[in-house]
């Protein structure tokens, strides 16, 4: 995901409402998220769909890595040799 440019990608809700189509197009073109504020505090983030999907994919991969590391540290890992044997038997 492309990082937020704080001088360009933060808008109050009132401004967002009045120019919603403009901000949708901007997010699609720049691929940068738009932070929407309400009463001076961050309230929501608008993301382009493909950027959201890529972020979810990355999170799922990181969760898989974390689970694998946890399993390995508990001694639940399988040696490379054993994995090769299992795949050879299936082929």
Structure described in brief:
Helix content is 58%, strand content 15%.
| Range of helix content | 55-70%
According to DSSP, the number of beta strands is 3
Q: Approximately how much beta-strand content do the residues carry?
A: 15-25%
The CATH topology annotation of the largest domain reads as: YefM-like fold
Annotate the secondary structure layout.
Layout: E1 10-12, H1 13-18, H2 20-30, E2 34-38, E3 41-46, H3 49-73, H4 80-90
Parallel strand pairs: 1-2
Antiparallel strand pairs: 2-3
Describe the structure.
A 3-stranded mixed β-sheet has the order 1-2-3. Helices cover 58% and strands 15% of the residues. It contains 4 helices and 3 strands, in the order βααββαα. The protein folds into 2 domains: 1-47, 3-Layer(aba) Sandwich (YefM-like fold); 49-91. The mean pLDDT is 92. It has helices at 13-18, 20-30, 49-73, 80-90, and strands spanning 10-12, 34-38, 41-46. The longest helix is centred in the C-terminal third of the chain and has 25 residues, at 49-73. The two termini are 39 Å apart. The chain is α+β, with helices and mostly antiparallel strands.
């Amino acid at each position: 995901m492309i990082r937020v440019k704080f001088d360009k990608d933060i808008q109050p809700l009132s401004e967002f409402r009045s120019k919603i189509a403009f901000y949708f197009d901007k997010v699609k073109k720049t691929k940068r998220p738009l932070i929407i504020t309400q009463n001076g505090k961050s309230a929501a983030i608008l993301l382009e769909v493909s950027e959201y999907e890529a972020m979810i994919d990355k999170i799922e991969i990181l969760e898989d890595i974390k689970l694998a590391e946890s399993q390995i540290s508990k001694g639940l890992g399988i040696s490379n040799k054993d994995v090769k044997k299992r795949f050879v038997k299936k082929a």
